[in-house]
Write a structure and sequence with these properties.
Layout: H1 15-34, E1 38-39, E2 45-47, H2 48-55, H3 60-65, E3 68-70, E4 76-79, H4 84-93, E5 102-111, E6 123-132, H5 137-153, E7 161-166, H6 170-184, H7 193-201, H8 212-218, H9 230-246, E8 251-252, E9 264-271, E10 280-286, H10 290-293, E11 301-307, H11 308-315, E12 326-330, H12 336-348, E13 353-354, H13 361-370, E14 375-379, E15 388-393, E16 399-403, H14 407-415
Parallel strand pairs: 1-5, 7-8, 12-13, 12-14
Antiparallel strand pairs: 2-4, 3-4, 5-6, 6-11, 7-9, 9-10, 10-11, 14-15, 15-16
């Protein structure tokens, strides 16, 4: 009989994989803190309305991908499919409008019911930032620069491309919506069923359609940039000027859009060719209407999110290694207590120490090699005087008798 297996679309983060994830998340946290973003943690589940409102009642995420359930108290609850909505809900419910600008960093698991594939699971992890309360291009510049700095720190500067576009303000988008509907209407019979509905409710979302027929139709659609008013164009020009000044390279992608009405002005994605079809590794934009739509005050916001699994794939397993321990080995079983005391003392001083637990001296030494230990400390060898141990550098093979008090100096030297 087969043993229990993880649920489809989930997986176990074993130590090596977790080390990769931690490298990604800690790099993100370190870089984002330099830009003034501090970490917050919101609940893994929220009232379903938090996401159905913000992602759009008819979006694929809401209609097909959310993990939703009813509690014993008849509350409609959803496991979070993304991070921004929870951050904005937290901003409202904690009354943070008096503290703007609010700059939050987050890391944690997200959940979407979709077909699992390489780098995309039903439980996955994201890092992200949100800057709430600043309506000037300076915020967009800073947020994009932080994303680039993060990817650069991971070593990806040469394999990612920043794609940039402007969605304009509401006046610009309304003008574009009319132009887009005029273009799409003659093709209505050829659109997918989802896009036929969107033609009435939210035509911009047709531009994001995954349907091949829809994609063929929209490839010649008018561009949003053709409808930017003077204010929107000036905002976009200032964002580009700021990125140029900071040395953040980008290409303009006039077909990069966001379908929901609360998005405006800057939209951006960092893409790569190293992951096959799943090319976006970090994406974001400005969402000035989101918090008001959720029932809060009119407060602007801009941010991004990045998938940790995809970044871990790009890093590769060899990028991050587990810490190398010290192995404390009793020369014989009747020296186990002395070995425990030495191990405990070293742990109190901050060292990573393994013991092997059982087996003869040879087996424990083999275990030290398997664990990639860099030092073996042998307790109870006959040639050692009281209070002394045998110190063996496993990198060089050098061995020397030393007092327990003298161990830290030799350990630091063996670390290199």
């Amino acid at each position: 009989m087969a043993g229990l297996q993880p649920v489809k679309g989930t997986y176990d983060l074993l130590p090596k994989e977790r080390a990769l994830h931690r490298h990604v998340s800690e790099t993100a946290r370190s870089i984002c803190e330099r830009y003034g973003f501090n970490e917050v943690i919101t609940p893994i589940f929220e009232f379903s309305e938090v996401f159905s409102r913000t992602l759009g009642e008819t979006s694929d995420v809401v209609t097909k991908e959310m993990f939703s359930f009813v509690t014993k108290g008849d509350d409609q609850i959803t496991l979070r499919p993304e991070g921004t909505a929870g951050i904005c809900r937290s901003f409202i419910s904690n009354g943070l409008q008096q503290e703007t600008p609010v700059k939050h960093f987050y890391y944690g698991p997200m959940f979407r019911y979709e077909r699992p594939q390489k780098g995309r699971q039903r439980q996955f992890h994201q890092v992200g930032i949100e800057l709430i309360g600043v309506d000037s291009p300076q915020a967009d510049i800073e947020v994009v620069a932080a994303g680039y700095h993060f990817l650069k720190e991971l070593g990806f500067a040469d394999v990612v491309t920043l794609e940039l576009n402007s969605l304009g303000d509401s006046e610009s988008r309304n003008a574009y919506r009319e132009k887009l509907v005029a273009y799409l209407s003659p093709f209505e019979d050829r659109l997918s069923e989802d896009s036929k509905k969107r033609l009435v409710t939210n035509p911009l979302r047709i531009l994001d359609s995954k349907d091949e027929g829809d994609r063929e139709i929209v490839k010649d659609a008018p561009l949003l940039g053709e409808c930017l008013n003077e204010t929107s164009q000036a905002f976009y020009d200032e964002v580009k000027r700021g990125l140029d000044m900071l040395g953040v390279p980008y290409v303009e992608n006039p077909r990069l859009v966001r379908g929901l009405d609360y998005y405006c002005h800057t939209a951006f994605e960092f893409t790569t060719n190293t992951l096959g079809a799943q090319g976006t590794v970090l994406a974001g934009g400005r969402y000035d209407g989101l918090i008001k739509m959720m029932g809060g005050p009119q407060v602007p916001g801009v941010g991004w999110a990045s998938g940790v699994e995809r970044l871990a794939l790009m890093l590769g397993e060899d990028k991050v290694k587990l810490p190398r321990p010290i192995m404390v080995i009793p020369a014989a079983n009747d020296h186990q207590d002395e070995a425990f005391l030495v191990a405990n003392r070293l742990r109190q001083e901050g060292y990573i120490v393994e013991q092997g637990y059982s087996g003869n001296f040879k087996k424990r030494l083999n275990k030290a090699n398997k664990l990639n230990a860099f030092v073996a400390i042998i307790v109870g060898m006959s040639e050692c005087n009281e209070g002394e141990v045998m110190f063996r550098d496993l990198n060089t093979g050098d061995q020397v008798q030393v007092s327990v008090d003298g161990l830290p100096a030799l350990i630091e030297r063996a670390k290199g």
